[in-house]
Specification:
The protein has 201 residues and is an alpha/beta fold. α5 (89-104) runs parallel beside α6 (119-128). It starts with a strand and ends with a strand. It has helices at residues 26-32, 54-58, 69-72, 79-83, 89-104, 119-128, 176-182, and strands spanning 2-6, 11-16, 19-25, 37-40, 44-46, 49-51, 108-113, 131-134, 155-156, 168-171, 187-192, 195-199. The chain has seven helices and twelve strands. The strands form three sheets. The protein has a four-stranded mixed β-sheet with strand order 3-2-1-4. Strands 5-10-11-12 form a four-stranded antiparallel β-sheet, with no helix packed on it. Strands 8-7-6-9 form a four-stranded mixed β-sheet, with no helix packed on it.
Length: 201
């Protein structure tokens, strides 16, 4: 189904399947596609964020299951706390799936990684549809689910245009300056491969 995603500034993307078939002002896209489904979002459409800490957040951290919150808390566990869990591959994969979901909730559409050693983590990342970009060495800064909180310049995915993969995020802010001030927790929706994979309730 053809879907128009529009933001509060009147900018829109026309998405069919996993691809963007048009980008431009909502009025123009809607007039040319009168039968399309329309999703109106508060805030701004962006290409989505690239999180530079794929290995650190998905393979070198454990994201507790909500049922473990009483014992382990809700924040990712690293270092000695991670080592004490003695994770098997099943738990590594489940943690990575939860980690990817938390990234998507911060408007991340791509993650930068060196080679992931765990097959369960690789499978979780692949099945999520989130894009993977290569990196060389550790990026510095502080690993965070919010790229604005890690102390490094924030990287967006390439601009969305006709023929691009349908990966983008919407943030409930008036402009990019406000997004930098509020951080990625302002995300209200993330689309990957044309699928709405996160929507703030």
């Amino acid at each position: 189904m053809l879907t128009l995603h529009a933001d509060a500034r009147g900018r829109a993307l026309a998405v069919e399947g996993a691809w963007i078939v048009a980008a431009g002002p909502l009025d123009e896209l809607a007039a040319a596609r009168p039968g399309a489904r329309l999703r109106r979002w508060p805030g701004i459409l962006t290409p989505g964020l690239v999180n530079p800490y794929g290995n650190e957040l998905l393979e070198e951290a454990y994201h507790p299951d909500p049922r473990e919150a009483g014992e382990l808390g809700t924040e990712p566990l690293t270092g000695e706390a991670l080592a004490a869990l003695a994770l098997d591959e099943t738990r590594r994969g489940a943690s990575a799936r939860r980690g990817v979901q938390r990234m998507l909730a911060h408007g991340t559409v791509a993650v930068a990684c060196e080679e992931l050693r765990s097959r369960a983590v690789r499978d979780a990342v692949h099945r999520s549809g989130i894009a993977v970009v290569g990196r060389t060495g550790r990026p510095g800064g502080t690993p965070s689910l919010d790229p604005y909180a890690c102390g490094l310049p924030v990287t967006f995915a390439p601009p969305r245009e006709r023929g691009s993969a349908a990966r983008f995020a919407v943030f409930d802010v008036p402009d990019e300056a406000a997004l930098a001030a509020r951080g990625a927790a302002a995300c209200v929706a993330t689309v990957v491969e044309g699928r709405l994979v996160y929507r703030r309730r």
